[in-house]
């Protein structure tokens, strides 16, 4: 079911995006990666997801290379945990741009192709933080709750075109994401939590493979998973 699917992944230079690219590629998929550094072969396209034109160009590049796009994985994201009183406005704004606008631009870029093909699948990345909140997590949780809102609205809107919509909500997965926590006093505790709790990025890649590997008439809408020893 995976072989020959054309899959575009944003934020693929590290973490679950890079691991999913490896996993799907090994299963025979044709992956086209959006990363903040591009490569000349066209399979890795320099893409800042906050720039709508760059995201449109990434998807168009996949269609030019392979004639179609089957899966759009809106994965790029930042996790700027900090309490309101620290007033870390710049990183909050950046997270809103990457985590929300980046997904809107990715969806908008793929949708015309999916409609024309009358097939396609969005995979949007939420989080356990899109299902529960903690102090310091207002902006991150807001962006990740919004993934579920945006994806469910999208799911309903694109039904007539035979398009599938999946939200994946991971718990702690071992990636570079703790590095996006910069706030003094927060970064160290998040790093400790990840060191003690996180599971390998392949856990996420296997969820993606499951969701996109289903028969065309099966639409896996939500997957929520955690490390077995993660409390919330
Ligand atoms: N790991 C977890 O525990 C966990 C749990 C729940 C949800 N998630 C979600 O999983 C997704 C992937 O994160 P990850 O855990 O794999 O972390 P990661 O290793 O830090 O990967 C995040 C990726 O997003 C990219 N990115 C950041 N800003 C970007 C921009 N403006 N344009 C394009 N790409 C940009 C980064 O590229 P550069 O490195 O080049 O900046 C990087 O490749 C995120 O949406 C995150 O919220 C992760």
TrEMBL record:
Q: InterPro entries under this entry?
A: KR_dom (IPR057326), NAD(P)-bd_dom_sf (IPR036291), Sc_DH/Rdtase_CS (IPR020904), SDR_fam (IPR002347)
- Oxidoreductase as a keyword? yes
Lineage: superkingdom: Bacteria
Q: Which SMART domains match?
A: PKS_KR
Q: Which terms in the Gene Ontology molecular function aspect does this entry carry?
A: oxidoreductase activity
Query: Where does the Ketoreductase domain start and stop, copy by copy?
Result: 5-176
Q: Which UniProt keywords apply?
A: Oxidoreductase
Record flagged with keyword Nucleotide-binding: no
Q: Member of which family?
A: Belongs to the short-chain dehydrogenases/reductases (SDR) family.
Protein name, UniProt field: SDR family oxidoreductase
Native organism: Antrihabitans cavernicola
């Amino acid at each position: 079911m995976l072989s020959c699917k054309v899959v575009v992944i944003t934020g693929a230079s590290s973490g679950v995006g890079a691991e999913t690219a490896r996993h799907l590629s090994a299963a025979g998929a044709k992956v086209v990666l959006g990363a903040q550094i591009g490569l000349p072969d066209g399979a890795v396209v320099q893409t800042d997801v906050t720039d709508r034109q760059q995201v449109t160009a990434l998807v168009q590049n996949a269609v030019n290379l392979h004639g179609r796009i089957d899966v759009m994985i809106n994965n790029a994201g930042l996790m700027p945990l900090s309490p309101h009183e620290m007033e870390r406005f710049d990183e909050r704004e950046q997270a809103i741009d990457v985590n929300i606008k980046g997904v809107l631009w990715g969806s908008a870029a793929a949708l015309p192709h999916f409609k024309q093909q009358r097939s396609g699948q969005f995979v949007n990345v939420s989080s356990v933080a899109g299902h529960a909140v903690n102090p310091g997590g207002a902006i991150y949780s807001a962006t990740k709750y919004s993934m579920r809102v945006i994806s469910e609205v999208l799911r309903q809107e694109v039904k007539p075109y035979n398009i599938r919509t999946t939200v994946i909500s991971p718990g702690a997965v071992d990636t570079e994401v703790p590095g996006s926590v910069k706030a003094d006093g927060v970064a160290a505790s998040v790093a400790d939590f990840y060191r003690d709790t996180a599971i390998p990025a392949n856990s996420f890649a296997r969820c993606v493979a499951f969701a996109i590997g289903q028969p065309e008439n099966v639409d896996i809408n939500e997957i929520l998973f955690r490390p077995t020893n993660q409390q919330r």
